[in-house]
Amino acid sequence: MAVFTTAPEPVSRHASSAPRDHTLLLMLPALVVLVFMFLVPLALFFVRSFTEFEGTIAEFIDQGRDLLLSQAYLTALGTTNWISLIVTVATLLIGYPIAYYLTTATGVGVTIVVLSIVLPYFTSVIVRTFSWMVLLGEHGLVNNVLLATGLVNEPLSLMYNRLGMLIGMSYVLLPYMVLTLYAAMRAIDPSLLRAASGLGASGFYTFRRVYFPLSLHGVLSGALIVYILSIGFFITPALMGGQHDIMIAMLIDRALEVAVDWPAAALMSLTLLVVTLTLYAVYYRVTDIRRLIGGR
Amino acid sequence: MVEMDSVVAEPARTAVTAAEPASPAPETARGAVELRGLTKRYGEDTVVNAIAVSIAPGEFFSLLGPSGSGKTTSLMMVAGFVRPDGGTVLLDGEDIAALPPQKRGFGMVFQNYAIFPHLNVFENIAFPLRARHWAKDAIGERVTWALELVRLGRFADRDAHQLSGGQQQRVALARAIVYHPLVVLMDEPLGALDKNLRFEMQVEIKEIQQRLGMTVLYVTHDQEEAMSMSDRIAIMDHGRIHQVGSPGEVYERPANLFVGRFLGEANLIEGTVMGKADEVVRLRLPSGQELRALHRNSCGTGRGVLFIRPERVEIAPAGISGDPSANTLAGKVRRCSFLGNILRYAVDLDGLPPITVDLQNAAGVSPLPVGAPVILRWPVADSLILAGEA
């Protein structure tokens, strides 16, 4: 559950700034679902976790501080942010050309690319992760090909380490980046690019001075989405990562499953939630949601 | 207008030398553009059909035509955005058809301006200079010059979205001329402006063009705009050029019915061409009456159409005599519309479609009542016989 809690809800900021009875009515089902399926359980989780704590408030604060300053937690925090950063950069570098291609190309190519981007998007994360494991395993497709062609003598370790985790996460999160960038790029008026070259700008200059700056808000939005999703990621890192790369979500899982320490889990969840919401606030500032869903 | 002269003339010179230190004064005027058999097909559709035009340096040349006539496609081929399927474009005798747009060195004003929304006014205008890697000082100097030229001196720091339509238009214009291109291409630059502003900008563009001596290739569907600004106009339809000439020529002496109709109100009277004496042709109307007119092209005998502009027709109450050598037709006032500067009559004739007559709303003119019998007159030399059917 924690993995996708931060997926952006299409809440229009204009609905709240100009309340009309119709708008409220239309939002009601979504609000009900959100409140009863998400906010209430989350609140109950925190309340119960903290009320279950046996001891004084002073002890609670002490132990909480110890936890948040513990080596394990700080390492996981560092790892999580570092991995998220790399995944964000990787998806951006891979996603930008793809999104650009989608905005310019026509025909069968687009359909193929769109399908290969969007279909996985609708497939379960576990399925996608397992597919990668089939590809990247010691006797997986990639290694078999490399061995068969003689490019390597022994199988590469592509999995159960940081590399595997990065490959898996980047893949799973790529659609978010591509679709966000695509929306931003679609909104760029092609006549501006034509104007630039008509006025003497080379292709690269046009990209640097016109296209990229105009796509920048998409870059920011996409990076924030991927980063937000990355720091809460659980399944893919758990399945494809190594022993040493513990992400915060995995730490929370351990606190619940292994140590059965609900207060600790709740505390870590809360910090993760705060970080996520802060980033989301930033995201909200830089992104016009109407633009994301195709308006101009 | 007057204050612009003092502002403009001087910095223009210095800026040029600052940018291109060794540029000698051009001995022969440059900026001649030639379109030679330019053709563009989209599938089965030939949108531009072997057009040929030769534009002199410093000339204001318009491509005028209805939408879908191929005028914008022609301009885009000159600019380099559309690859011709045949023919070529020459700039000062040099074939530039293979060059990408950014290498052609034209200035361009686009439909809807294409102002860069993330750059302020100064940076928008500086764009062509920065793309050409000019030095910072030269850029500052030249942009300031261009801003003054379009009277936007105070707006350098404004964001693009803070500008009105007219101001955006000026920015687009300044951006197109800032690096002193020999040739500026303009694609319906005034289409998005309201009527008064459009007229104002026509005057300004024309003045700037004359001051800088640049060649302008201008695309528009607005015949008044084309006529008020151009040295010559090419009237296009269905990918072909029907006529090239000065505004007076194409308006007064249309090559064919399309041109005649497109350039303004036209009366077209169908009949049978009877034969010619010297320049003059006789046209027999269904009623048996004969009219005389000049002939434009070698119309043989057969069907023909007499063309006469509404403002060239005189209208007078029946019974008032006039020049006996003029063409005359009798009719009845069907309608009189007040258009401000003119009174527009529709006059019913026997067995012919109604004739439109424009009368200057001068002092002492009072409208004739509906149903009044009138005589229409026009000098033979003001009308033309064109081939075809109306």
Low-confidence stretches of chain B: 1-27
Radius of gyration of chain A: 22 Å
CATH topology descriptor of chain A: MetI-like fold
- Main sheet of chain A? none
The third-level CATH topology of the largest domain in chain B is Rossmann fold
Q: What is the radius of gyration of chain B?
A: 25 Å
Question: What is the rounded distance between the termini of chain B?
Answer: 45 Å
Which CATH C-level class of the largest domain in chain B is it?
A: Alpha Beta
Structural class of chain B: alpha+beta
Low-pLDDT windows of residues of chain A: 1-17, 292-296
Our count of domains of chain A comes out at 1
Supply the number of helical segments of chain A: 14
Characterization of this structure:
The complex is a heterodimer of chains A (296) and B (390). In chain A, 76% of the residues lie in helices and 0% in strands. Chain A has 296 residues and is an all-alpha fold. Chain A has one domain (2-7, 71-292): MetI-like fold (Orthogonal Bundle), CATH 1.10.3720. In chain B, a hairpin with a 2-residue loop joins strand 9 (232-237) and strand 10 (240-245). Chain B is elongated and about 75 Å long. The two termini of chain B are 45 Å apart. Chains A and B meet through helix 9 and helix 10 of A and helix 4 of B.
